[in-house]
Write a structure and sequence with these properties.
Structural class: alpha/beta
Number of helices: 21
Number of strands: 26
Shape: flat
CATH topology of one domain: Isoleucyl-tRNA Synthetase, Domain 1
Strand content: 15-25%
Radius of gyration: 28 Å
Distance between the termini: 66 Å
Oligomer: single chain
CATH architecture of one domain: Orthogonal Bundle
Helix content: 40-55%
CATH superfamily of one domain: Isoleucyl-tRNA Synthetase, Domain 1
Bound molecules: zinc ion
């Protein structure tokens, strides 16, 4: 029999900059859903990708001295690095610059044009440059862009319009009658009230002010609006118009996961395009909230993101995945607080799960020569835990039909905590002292082992390393790592040899880690191009060409001042080759501004500028740091050198 299909997508990420923690949630949630369905026997297609056209990317590329294609190639490499670090198990990565996609968009636009759904007119309106979106006066919030909160500007250009108004009743009916079409309900109502109820307006779907995009087939002076281009990825990637068989197999999509800021595009423009070309709608759009820092949405354009690579490198992908999937913004925004993150992973992964595993293995090793014993008589004391295990799978499948990883993880960890309590109640260490209680001891340790197996098998959908580590310790064979094997609590999985090995998750020193994270978060907000090495990793060797890419020069500090409300930072003005650069450095604890004016320092001068506390910092001053005491020293040439001298 053919497997049931499951098609799930993330939004395609805009290739204008690096990914940050805020983006990763949607990908991690999609990944968990895809992994769950695969384990549950579905034929899964998990699509992710990158949105690569538009004025903003053309501008960024120009600033970086690259062609747009070179620029997006680089950004997309970065996306893939982050995804691989976080274990995002996508089946396909679509790029909107892929030839197949370009052809598909062009064909769809042509079809709409030939149907009379697209007409030429002139657009005058209020435009948000970063969002590449026109708004009407009434859509603005406090006179600013409703999506990003930045000022909009008046703009006018000839453009082709998509006759969306013609589909007003269609879309209204859709919102009023299709239940799960957009979740959560609150977001659906919000979009309905603001953008649907009073009818939808025609949409300007081409641009002439730049050319980095897909050319309109009916008028090549125009490029297609980035949203009409991007949305089509969900069908171009699975063969719409090119591979009928594959398309019919996977479409309609089961769930589009998106961030809440793009709900409007997905719930209005996308269904209208599909309806207009005669394609069935996706079954569900799941609109997630955001992970925020200090109450602000982490967004690429605001440069306040926190690097997921830093977190995953230090704590492992599972720590980040666990935190996001358990406490993440399934529907509504949640703040990302370092202390909550650290405490959660310490208490759940290290204490609750880690202790359960290590205690069980230690007792089996001590009392049964490290072989899982055969259970004897099951009594009421055991049944509480066994019942919980028996419900896990069914409850999980129900919860995952609503994409609720948070509910599943809560259930699994309730079961883990119940197992720890079971140890306290049954007191196996007391049973071990009494030879007549050997059978009871065998049963208790068996029940614990089977509980751990069932929880770990389910956890495989959410975490990528820890479940395998645990199953390895209990020598669980492949056929007992499937969802089929955890539907009922078995009494037959004894006889395997357990191994102690390393703890499944190391205990964290919360104070020390908090200090580290706070320090990291004041550094550049985006992924540094050269990763710093940590103690336990071998130091990566680089070639001289690689080193040569870093431009180091001598500069003189001509001014330095404190930055309000930033007690670690100084704003320095540094003269290099007669040109003054502004550079923000985290040295305020070690130097007073007046003490460093006139000093010569070494500056990385070709670092991508970043905005720190509203100040554009155009480089980095080199320092020596003692990683034991935290003491810091600026580095200077040991005799006076002319400004702009090359450091090599
Ligand atoms: Zn905006």
């Amino acid at each position: 029999m053919d497997k049931k299909k499951y098609y799930v997508t993330t939004p395609i990420y805009y290739a204008s900059g690096d990914l940050h923690v805020g983006h990763c949630f949607c990908s991690v949630l999609t990944d968990a859903t895809a992994r769950f369905k695969r384990l549950d026997g579905y034929d899964v297609m998990f699509l992710t990708g990158s949105d690569e056209h538009g004025m903003k990317i053309a501008k960024k590329a120009e600033e970086a001295g690259l062609t747009p294609k070179e620029f997006v190639d680089k950004t997309v490499d970065g996306f893939k690095r982050v995804f691989s670090k976080l274990g995002i198990s996508y089946d396909k990565f679509i790029r909107t610059t892929d030839e197949q996609h370009v052809k598909c968009v062009s064909a769809i636009m042509n079809k709409l044009y030939e149907n009379g759904d697209i007409y030429l007119d002139k657009y005058e309106g209020l435009y948000c440059v970063p969002c590449e979106t026109f708004f009407t006066e009434s859509q603005l919030v406090d006179g600013k862009c409703p999506d990003c909160g930045r000022p909009v500007e008046k703009a006018s250009e000839p453009c082709y319009f998509f006759r969306m108004s013609k589909y007003s009743d269609y879309i209204k009916n859709l919102f009023e009658t299709k239940k799960d079409f957009l979740v959560p309900e609150s977001r659906k109502n919000e979009i309905y009230n603001n953008f649907v109820k009073d009818g939808v307006q025609d949409l300007c779907v081409t641009r002439t002010s730049f050319d980095w995009g897909i050319k309109a087939p009916f008028d090549p002076k125009h490029v297609i609006y980035v949203w009409c281009d991007a949305l089509v990825n969900y069908i171009s990637a699975i063969g719409y118009g090119t591979d009928e068989e594959m398309f019919n197999k996977y479409w309609p999509c089961d769930v589009h996961f998106i961030g809440r800021d793009i709900s409007r595009f997905h719930s209005i423009i996308w269904p209208i395009i599909l309806h207009a070309i005669g394609v069935e709608l996706p079954k569900k759009i799941h609109s997630t909230g955001f992970i925020t820092l200090k109450g602000d949405k982490i967004s690429k354009s605001k440069s306040n993101g926190f690097d997921p690579i830093v977190l995953a490198d230090r704590y492992g992908a599972d720590a980040l995945r666990y935190f996001m999937l358990k406490d993440g913004p399934i529907y509504n925004d949640i703040p990302f607080a370092f202390d909550v993150f650290l405490k959660t992973i310490n208490s759940d992964l290290c204490n609750d799960l880690g202790n359960l595993v290590s205690r069980t293995i230690a007792m089996i090793t001590q009392n049964f020569d490290a072989v899982v014993p055969q259970p004897k008589q099951i009594i009421d004391e055991d049944k509480v835990l066994i019942d919980m295990c028996n419900n896990l799978y069914n409850n999980a499948t129900k919860a995952m039909d609503e994409e609720r990883s948070d509910i599943v993880l809560k259930d699994i960890f309730d079961c883990v905590r119940c197992a720890n309590k079971y140890i306290d109640i049954t007191e196996p260490w007391v049973l071990a002292k009494d030879p007549t209680k050997k059978d009871r001891l065998a049963t208790v340790l068996y029940v614990l082992t089977e509980t751990i197996r069932i929880c770990s098998v389910l956890l495989q959908a959410f975490l990528i390393e820890i479940p395998g580590k645990i199953l390895e310790k209990f020598d669980v064979s492949d056929n007992l790592r499937t969802f089929d094997s955890i539907k009922t609590f078995s009494l037959n999985n004894y006889g395997k040899t357990v191994t102690k090995g390393d703890p499944i998750f190391p205990r964290l020193d919360i104070d020390k880690e908090l200090e580290y994270l706070n320090q990291e978060s004041t550094k550049t907000p985006s992924t540094p191009s050269i990763q710093e090495t940590t103690e336990d990793e071998p130091i990566e060797q680089i070639s001289i060409d690689y080193f040569d890419k870093v431009k180091l020069e001598v500069g003189t500090i001509v001014n330095s001042e404190k930055i309000e409300k930033a007690d670690k930072l100084l704003k320095n003005t540094i003269r290099i080759n007669g040109v003054n650069k502004t550079i923000v450095s985290g040295i305020a604890k070690y130097y007073k501004p007046e003490d460093i004016i006139g000093k010569q320092v070494i500056v990385v001068t070709n670092l991508k500028p970043v905005t720190l506390r509203g100040i554009v910092s155009e480089g980095m001053v080199l320092c020596a740091v003692d990683d034991k005491t935290g003491d810091l020293s600026l580095i200077s040439p040991n005799k006076e050198m002319p400004d702009g001298s090359i450091v090599c």
